[in-house]
Amino acid sequence: MEKFKVGITGGIGSGKSTVCRLFAQWNVTIIDADAISHELTGPGGKAITAIQSIFGKQAISAECGMNRAYMRKLVFEDAGVRHQLQAIIHPLINQEMAQKTASATGDYVIYDIPLLVESIHKYKDFLNVICVVDCEESEQVLRVQARSGLSVEAVMNIIRAQASREQRLAVATEVIFNGSGVTHEQLQSRAFELHQKWLLLAQKLSVSG
Ligand SMILES: Nc1ncnc2c1ncn2[C@@H]1O[C@H](COP(=O)(O)OP(=O)(O)OP(=O)(O)O)[C@@H](O)[C@H]1O
């Protein structure tokens, strides 16, 4: 039976993980794209053999995972390398996502995909809903600084490398505003409203499907 699929995205520090934790408490399965990617490229991960054969031994760390610092530099310097690496990892991510979706319990599934908008072509036909966790840049900077100690400039560089707030909002089916001044209770109540809506839509899909 086809599952109802919700993609949750947002910029760094916008509150995606916080929001996903709220849905998890209602027993919604959360599939974390970053965690899958880390597992695939971590020690013994399924992408490691291909990474070593294409990029050489230097691309592999002492722990037999991907040498992230080395690959980050390579990708930064050469867009071709980024495409090659994506060509290895993306099909594996899709495979893992499909497996996790098939074994998910509950009426619908949430995919936590930080870079959803950056690869929208890949996801737009797959997802029933694109939900954007929206936050002002100034608030993103404060939150990321508080947790990492990075400089304002360093955080802004990450923000600028991601899709803009406008680009995200342009493709959103639903928006969860989690900017300055939003309390945990307000966030919880907005998430619950969407949970009820998605349960209904998921049930409709299962009846029609
Ligand atoms: N409404 C809020 N008010 C204050 N702090 C918040 C709020 N929502 C989230 N935070 C805090 O902001 C930080 C970032 O939140 P979270 O980790 O959920 O974001 P994220 O979008 O998953 O970030 P990343 O993309 O970097 O993983 C956390 O320390 C979290 O506790």
Can you lay out the helices and strands and say which pair or pack?
Elements: E1 4-9, H1 16-24, E2 29-32, H2 33-41, H3 48-55, H4 68-77, H5 79-102, E3 108-112, H6 120-123, E4 129-134, H7 137-148, H8 152-161, H9 165-171, E5 174-177, H10 184-208
Helix pairs in contact: 2-5, 4-5, 7-8
The protein binds adenosine-5'-triphosphate (ATP).
Family: Belongs to the CoaE family.
Keywords: ATP-binding, Coenzyme A biosynthesis, Cytoplasm, Kinase, Nucleotide-binding, Transferase
Subcellular location: Cytoplasm
Quaternary organization: single chain
What is the overall number of helices?
A: 10
Distance between the termini: 7 Å
- How many structural units, i.e. domains? 2
Order of helices and strands: EHEHHHHEHEHHHEH
CATH class of the largest domain: Alpha Beta
The distinct ligands, each listed once, are: adenosine-5'-triphosphate
Helix content: 55-70%
Largest sheet: 5 strands, parallel
CATH homologous superfamily descriptor of the largest domain? P-loop containing nucleotide triphosphate hydrolases
Integer average pLDDT:
95
Low-confidence stretches: none
Biggest β-sheet: strands ordered side by side in the sheet: 2-3-1-4-5
**CATH architecture tag of the largest domain:** 3-Layer(aba) Sandwich
Radius of gyration: 18 Å
Overall 3D form: globular
Portion in beta strands: 5-15%
Question: What structural class do the secondary elements suggest?
Answer: alpha/beta
And the CATH topology of the largest domain? Rossmann fold
Question: Would you report the number of β strands?
Answer: 5
Pathway: Cofactor biosynthesis; coenzyme A biosynthesis; CoA from (R)-pantothenate: step 5/5
Protein name: Dephospho-CoA kinase
GO molecular function, one term: dephospho-CoA kinase activity
EC number: 2.7.1.24
